[in-house]
Amino acid sequence: MSDGGCECGAIRYRLATAPFFVNCCHCRQCQKITGSAFAINAMIEGDRIVLMQGEPVVAEGGTVRCPNCATLLWATHRMFGDKIVFLRAGTLDESETLTPDAHFFVRSKHRWITLPEGARSFETLPGADDVLMTGAARQRLDAALAS
To answer: Which CATH class is domain 2-146?
Structure first.
């Protein structure tokens, strides 16, 4: 299991299972939200995030933040509703254990960033014909959306 939380420590959570897909998003919105060159998003079923301490605030648009320090913990996406959340991997205590499965919006990545050799990358979001997930990851996504 992986634990995480906000910057001030008011919110603590535990992941009941590992995320099933991790992406590194280089879009301008993620750059602005994080104040960094990219965001690392870990897709996981919403019911697999167990709150251990505190009560986060859910804002319009599905973003979940700490009410004290405003750390963005996770968010929903219009394509998936609240069944799947995009956890901000940087809020995990050991976020370095996650490796992105794909890089999105590489058209706006910072020039000094070099993607690992062989990394799956997309100029924007993957297209409908792009197969991102196979096997267990695809099964988890499909099961969550069907529930």
So the answer is: alpha beta
